[in-house]
Amino acid sequence: MIRAARRRPRRRGQGGGFPDILEAETPAAMICPFCNANDDKVIDSRPTEGGAVIRRRRACLRCDRRFSTYERVEQASRLMVVKKDGSRVPFNTDSIVRGVSNACGKRPIPEDIKRQLAEQVEEELHTEFEREVASEVIGERVMSRLRHIDRVAYIRFATEHLQLSTLEEIQRELDDLASRPMESPEQTNLFAGPKRSHKKP
User: Are the C-beta atoms of 40 and 59 separated by less than 8 Å?
Assistant: First the structure.
């Protein structure tokens, strides 16, 4: 996740005759994902996800391209992912983004959509699971959302996650996908998923 750090506010007027006030906090510049310049300006800031995330729209002053950054509160506890071999690793949202990006390849899917998918899965898992979550569960949550975004990317992700190794297995997945209607954002929340709490009371 790209997080924009905030500069510390500075006091003006000490010894200069100005009122003792705090300057407004200015979001720090971020590295442009297109030209790697560290020189941009924020052109829009707004809360999302019920105020849990601040989305900032930025314009690079070198290449004039625009990109988005997101600020969110770090989760206090680290969720552990139980892999198929039984090993445990800390949950990392960037791992989901990489998996989704690999599945999407050169498909015309905006980076914001990929990042939002990963962050929605992260939020859901931290809500439902207290300490550990199986990697299979994470893959299923990603698949359920990717199915409604791009079917080609979904098949690519499913092939890797479900370890489909034969043409017959891939064809069965294609048939199952074809039997389900492609829901539009107007029909359903694109990132909505089942929410069942697995936390201990």
Answer: yes
